[in-house]
Amino acid sequence: MKYLLKTAILVVCVLISLLTQAQKTTQLTASNIFKSHITLQLNGGLTQYFGDLNKDNFFNQNVRNGFGGALGYQFSPLFGLRAQYVKGTLYSVYVKKEVKLNSDFWDASMQLTLNINEIFARYNEKRFVNFYLFGGAGVSSYTSRLNDFSSNYLIRESSSRQSELVVPMGIGAQFRLSKHANLNIEYGDRLTFSDSLLDFYDGGSKRDQYSYASVGLGFRFGGPRDKDKDAIIDKKDKCPDVAGKIELAGCPDADNDGIADNEDDCPKLAGVQEFKGCPDTDGDGIPDTKDKCPKVSGKKELLGCPDKDNDGIADIDDKCPEQAGKAAFQGCPDRDGDEVADKDDECPDVSGLAKFHGCPDKDADSVPDNLDRCPGVPGSVRNFGCPEESNVLVKEVVYFDTDEWIVIDKYNQLLNRIAETMRDNPGIRVTVDGHTDSRESEGYNMQLSENRAEYVIKFFTDRGIDPQRLVKRYYGETRPAASNMTPEGMTLNRRVEIASVK
């Protein structure tokens, strides 16, 4: 269980790091320039013993106090080296044997540190929280005593201070307090190379462990020289005596046009690289010295003067300079492209027919859509484009076999009669509602009900019925006609309902 807990802590820290760095820095700033430095950390915390005397009872891992420090050198944004010293006490109770362990220890180690944040984002000196991993090798030295739990009688103790190799590893977090100080929270596990030197017990686990969780203050010192204080160290600064920009390797840009002054033909006027730092005021790709309209963006083929509606006709020759048009209409528009000029078009945004003054007739019933009360359904002129109402009503049901969307054969005759009725009565419109029983999942049944309705609609359209007279709907198992608890009920639910609508 203890290994699961440690793994969970590590995973949580990595996820937090990922989330806090999801927006990566893309613009180079002073805080993104890494400078190697020395680190010093002083801390205090809690120690825990993990070994044969408590391996069967995770919650019997008693904590004791400890303190320590570390001196290191951060030589890159990702990696650093440090020497760490920890001193403290380890304590545990072994209930089965009625004994307790006390051990005074210190350990010293060399460790490599890995900054997790730098894996996912550019270095940022001002970042509030940084997570890191550490691991290395060192020496642990301790004197241990084993006493009776009840009487405190001394059972065994180290004859002298015992030392052995130890492998420290763990995770930590730094919270920035200032440029030179931070708050450190750290958890580290120490893995020994013996099973009995620390606790006198050889329990078959091959090696004992102990941990140190700490809180402390960290400090940073030193770093390479930056004479002009422009956040670029002198070694990498092309202009070390004059403060400049990071993106220009430390050289100045007086007009802030992204071109170093020593390469800028117009160092006091912001310009563009294309024209060696000189301006193109109207941004039309023609330098001001060659532009006949330098304050108004224009086209190269018109020597820098504008064609506002971009219709290929110069504004001075365009009778509609604010609207793109056609040469045939002297620069005025035909927005819907129906060869009827907008000024003569009663439907200028919809392509139509000249005989209807530019308006469409989608249902081809000789009533233009702007006058058609039923523009999606063919109708009669005397009924304002709507179909004549019929007194004939349709209300029928056809059924299907399990998991099928082709109607049972005996209902084909009924579907033919409905199609014949609709052909004889062009004013009839019907709804086609698909349904299923509840044998399969909701999603599957919804698709099956749609397939059944689609089959019936195709049956009618194949027999000459206009699709605009058919309204497809499907409900899956949501509207049963009978209980789905019996085979008979399921049979009644596998259906398509066909009903006329006004």
- Give Rg in angstroms: 42 Å
Q: Give the N-terminus to C-terminus distance in angstroms.
A: 71 Å
- Secondary-structure-based class equals alpha+beta
Tally of separate helices: 5
Report on this structure:
It is a single chain. Residues 1-5, 11-15 and 17-27 have low confidence and may be disordered. The chain is an alpha+beta fold and 502 residues long. It has 5 helices and 13 strands.
Helix/strand layout:
Layout: H1 2-20, E1 37-50, E2 63-74, E3 79-94, E4 99-115, H2 117-120, E5 129-148, E6 154-157, E7 162-176, E8 181-192, E9 209-221, E10 395-399, H3 412-424, E11 429-434, H4 442-461, E12 470-474, H5 487-493, E13 495-501
Parallel strand pairs: 11-12
Antiparallel strand pairs: 1-2, 1-9, 2-3, 3-4, 4-5, 5-6, 5-7, 7-8, 8-9, 10-13, 11-13
Compact description:
This protein is α+β, with helices and mostly antiparallel strands. 13% of the residues lie in helices and 29% in strands.
Which terms would index this structure?
four-stranded mixed β-sheet, eight-stranded antiparallel beta barrel, alpha+beta, 5 helices, disordered N terminus, 13% helix, 502 residues, 13 strands, 60s Ribosomal Protein L30, Chain: A, Porin, 3 domains
